[in-house]
Fold this sequence. Notes:
Layout: E1 3-6, E2 20-23, H1 28-38, H2 42-46, E3 57-61, E4 64-65, E5 81-86
Parallel strand pairs: 1-5
Antiparallel strand pairs: 1-2, 3-4, 3-5
Amino acid sequence: MAIKVLIPTPLQKFTEDRAEIECSGDTIDAMIDSLEESCPGIKERICDEQGKLRRFLNVYVNSEDIRFLDGQATSLADGDEVSIVPAVAGG
């Protein structure tokens, strides 16, 4: 199963400067593990010590925020696109 993962610029140092990576996995958690296998070190940047996504990241599956789906248990299918987007704040 191929999942396209869009990588933000600050994390591209772990992906050999690639903005797009193909991974596998039937859930976000499984996709993160697959991403770590091909890009060692990236998981600790996007997940905390308990394996939960860091608060300053937003993750979307086909433009749907996973916070409004099943979080890290959100199901993935072949051809899905996952976007990892750093949160932006300002004032």
